[in-house]
From TrEMBL:
Alphabetical list of PANTHER family matching this protein: PYRANOSE 2-OXIDASE
Protein's name in the database: Choline dehydrogenase-like flavoprotein
InterPro entries: FAD/NAD-bd_sf, GMC_OxRdtase_N, GMC_OxRtase_C, P2Ox-like
Organism name: Prosthecomicrobium pneumaticum
Boundaries of every Glucose-methanol-choline oxidoreductase C-terminal domain copy: 433-488
Length: 502
């Protein structure tokens, strides 16, 4: 590892890896510090019992609920590539309207400091970087694309093509999901879904296999694993002077010119709060008192549609979604959200939630079912927040927009029954599922109401950037991974254009 890099990136998830890829070839000496290690290719990577029932890959970590002080094991992962190692590989753009003020039933989704057109070229670059499979022209809410997807969409399996046809008859507009996965390569390793299954470099386009792989081709970019950052130290001039971290039991420091925090919406905020000092008693980058606030986590519910006469022979299933209720409830009312297929749910996966039921019976039910995810926007609230108490992470999540989400689930049930699935059951996801955590270090143009400028640079510290889902002022209602990557590439361009000057 270089002793005095120009830039240190803390975290190798979608934000940090994409930023590093954008900076590769710039001449900057870059060190990436990753708390975890590379995910090993073991049988557990494709074993649903190990993943869902035994929690084999879940971190041995607890966070605390602010409401009652109870401890829970979060579903965040610490591996090279971060949470993207387990994601469903949906790389979808926010809708153009998501960058504007949107009125919801329970409140307002605020405007971003720029509009969709500003990020569009970076979306296109991110789609190339992550080798996205997709198609244009099927989704009425689709924003303008300056170029097509680099690869054709992943094709429906036969059973899923039937489901798509049934939903079209009901007037819906099922459209191909933009996916970062080589389905053929994935299935060659083992015939399993990819959603929530870890990628052992076997077909999923994640932060390691695309972003980091691109970055590490530059000899000026190095990766240090098992490096847990403990705190940032600000100098008297307000710049971040030192990074203090623990590497395999040994405490070390680095003093780069530029510090980029990409540890995720919870951990980035927690690190800034834990780095408070006499000059910054409420934490770093927190003159505005927004660090840790405005935590958002999509409202999500699994909806399983069952037809006793239907046979779901699909392996992965996750190829389409629909946005017919994204901007309205279908009757002139406010937005409800996005619907997309989940990865194929098996009896072994259901067993994790229904432990009393025999696996054979669950397998029989799963074989006649198709599995969807209902996803609605979680609106920003200053009192929905991340706190630190010593070395504890305390989460105070105030769910919002639940009336709209409940209506989305109800509408889905109506549509699925009309499409020939007489039995429809649902199960909300709880706090143990990191359903696209974001906010907490929001960006904006007003230093009194935001922590970062529109290029993710801290208002309070000239050499500090925060490039992960923390920057988002709203959560929209689609998967955020591509937007994080696009903003990271935009930030990289800005850093290069300004010569990394503070």
């Amino acid at each position: 590892m270089q002793s005095s890099p120009d830039i240190v990136i803390i975290g190798s998830g979608m934000g940090g890896a994409s930023l590093a890829a954008g900076l590769a070839g710039s001449g900057a000496r870059i060190t990436i510090l990753e708390k975890g290690r590379q995910l090993p290719d073991t049988p557990e990577c494709r074993d649903p019992r190990a993943i869902f029932q035994r929690g084999h890959f879940r971190p041995k970590e607890v966070w605390y609920d602010a409401a009652d002080g109870s401890a829970f094991n979060p579903g965040n992962y610490y591996y090279v590539g971060g949470n993207s190692k387990f994601y469903g590989a949906v790389l979808i753009r926010y809708r153009a309207e998501d960058f504007e003020v949107l009125e919801h039933r329970d409140g307002v989704s605020p405007a971003w400091p720029y509009r969709y057109a500003e990020l569009e070229p970076h979306y296109t670059r991110a789609e190339r970087l992550y080798r996205v499979r997709g198609s244009l022209g099927q989704d009425p809410t689709e924003p303008r694309h300056s170029a097509g997807y680099p690869f054709p969409a992943v094709r429906d399996e036969l059973a899923i093509a039937e489901v798509r046809a049934r939903l079209k008859v009901e007037g819906l507009h099922p459209s191909d999901l933009p996916l970062g996965v080589d389905a053929e390569a994935w299935l060659k390793r083992a015939k399993t879904p990819w959603d929530a299954f870890p990628d052992s470099r076997s077909g999923k386009m994640d932060a390691e296999t695309c972003g980091l792989d691109t970055a590490l081709r530059d000899p000026n970019v190095t990766l240090e694993t098992e490096a847990e950052v403990l705190r940032l130290v600000a100098g008297s001039d307000g710049r971040i002077a030192r990074i203090v971290y623990r590497h395999r039991g040994e405490e070390k420091t680095l003093s780069p010119k530029i510090v980029v925090l990409s540890a995720g919406a919870v951990k980035s905020a927690a690190l800034l709060l834990a780095s408070k000092d006499e000059r910054h008693p409420t934490g770093l980058a927190n003159r505005s008192d927004v660090v840790g606030r405005y935590f958002m986590n999509h409202n999500t519910t699994a909806v399983i549609a069952i037809d006793p006469l239907f046979r779901n022979t699909a392996i992965h299933q996750k190829t389409f979604g629909f946005n017919d209720f994204y901007f309205s409830d279908g009757a002139g009312g406010p937005p409800l959200g996005n619907v997309q297929l989940l990865g194929r749910v098996s009896g072994a996966i259901l067993k994790a939630q229904i432990r009393w039921a025999p696996t054979l019976a669950l397998d029989m039910m799963a074989s006649r079912a198709v599995d969807f995810l209902a996803m609605s926007e979680d609106l920003p609230d200053a009192e929905s927040r991340v706190r630190v108490d010593g070395d504890k992470v305390v989460l105070q999540w105030k769910r919002s927009n639940m009336a709209a989400h409940d209506r989305l689930v109800a509408v889905m049930k109506e549509k699925f029954r009309a499409a020939g699935f007489p039995i429809v059951v649902s199960k909300p996801f709880d706090r143990r599922t990191p359903s696209h955590q974001c906010g907490t270090v929001r960006f904006g143009t007003d230093p009194s109401a935001s922590a970062l400028d529109p290029y993710c640079r801290a208002h309070d510290h000239a050499n500090l950037f925060v490039v992960d889902a923390s920057f988002m002022p709203s959560s929209a209602a689609v998967n955020p991974a591509l937007t994080i990557a696009a903003q990271a590439l935009r930030t990289a361009d800005h850093m290069i254009a300004t010569g990394f000057a503070a």
